[in-house]
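[agent] plan:
  1. take the single chain provided in the ticket
  2. run structure prediction with default settings
  3. attach structure tokens to the ticket
  4. add a short note for the reviewer (M.T.)
[agent] executing step 1
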Amino acid sequence: MSHPPRFQYFVILADMRTGSNLLEACLNSFAGVACLGEVFNPHFIGQPKTETVLGFDKAARDADPAAVVARFAQNPTLAGFRFFHDHDPRALAQFLPDPACAKIILTRNPLDSYISLKIARQTHQWRLGDVSQRKGAQIVFDPAEFQAHVATLQEFQLQVQAGLQRSGQTAFYLSYEDITELDVLNGLAAWLGLTDRIKELPKKLKRQNPEPLGEKLINPEALADGVARLDRFNLARSPSFEPRHPPVLWAYRACRSQPLVYAPVPGCREDAILEWMARIDGVGVQDLLADFTPAMWQDWQRATPRRVAFSVLRHPVWRAHECFVDQVLLGKRENVRAFIQQVTGQELPRRADDLAHWASAQHHAAFMAYLGFVKANLNGQTALPIRPVWASQSRLIEAISAQCPLHRLIREEHLQDELPQIAVGLGQALPPFRPTQRKPALDLAEIYDARIEGAAQAAYGHDYALLAFGPWRSAA
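[agent] step 2 finished; step 3 output follows
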């Protein structure tokens, strides 16, 4: 029989040892359905001994996976295949956004699939049709290996979920145990648009490892460690509501005599860096290449394929304090000033002369309030836009890397040692770096304590985690 036009083809999104062979056999029991195995397995096509699928051999498939997917859509019967996390990603990109492709998502308890996979690898028995030929084995449970197994499965499942969400699709979800339920399988047939129903399960395949969990393991005591390693509810994830930032091409600076470009992170002082680059060229800072437009930037990249691009990171506490002083106290961030004054109940000084007479307790309270503002602002809890000068450095580096892949990411305190080392990449001698001595209007070291460090980590948690910052240490 010909299938209705609801779907043109289907895919079983599963993984090894999830019951996909049995599900394939069940689907092939329905009239007008053909599931043709692991069509995009990198080691074979369809099944291990199959030569061609729908007229494609392995070489032709690898040369044009999109053509194979298209052939499934054109098949006169409802045809499909099984697809695992390590199959050809080009095929996934082709069928995942296609609403004409029915997505059947099959999952299994990852502990069961891990143990089953280890046993199959040890016995070399991947399918069982005759119970008398079954090969049993005990395996060693490796907690770290199990953790990696679960992470791989989750990453693939999240990738599929995101693809379905972005394209406005839904899938038919099955667990390993569902495959033995006739009503569920017939419900799947109805969802696919089939009129045929089955009355019994295929008898060819048998469950391979029916023993209790403990009997399959040489070291069942290691299970507790393996489970403890997992974050099943993703509690360790630190959610970020901070939007992505566009790259600020106009702020990039490049030397004229060397293929060297500096992509500054807003909020990190750059005067001494630009002076060092100007000395490389033997010119003034104003003569460095600057004010790039997208077209100019692409031209420069094409003209300098062997380049070195670098950026500089500042400790979150130090960066936040300088922004607080320069942008809020002595600058024009009136909305932020009003927020801090409302929280602290104190009038903030406006002139550098007034800061000298500001009490440490007031300074501490105002800076704590500023860090509270930054946390709320980055989490989308204020009406004010997120400004790059106080945005997370990790997010800003993401934006820079999208346009300017970085060869070096240098901590501010290491500039004197690391900038001259760029000479190795350029094959040229470079002048020493001379840091600028600048006396701050307010001394952070006078007020810094565990409360400030905690507030900074709360505001810039991703910077601490992704960029490996520890507690701030005064250079004094």
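[agent] step 4 note for reviewer: The mean pLDDT is 88.
[agent] ticket updated
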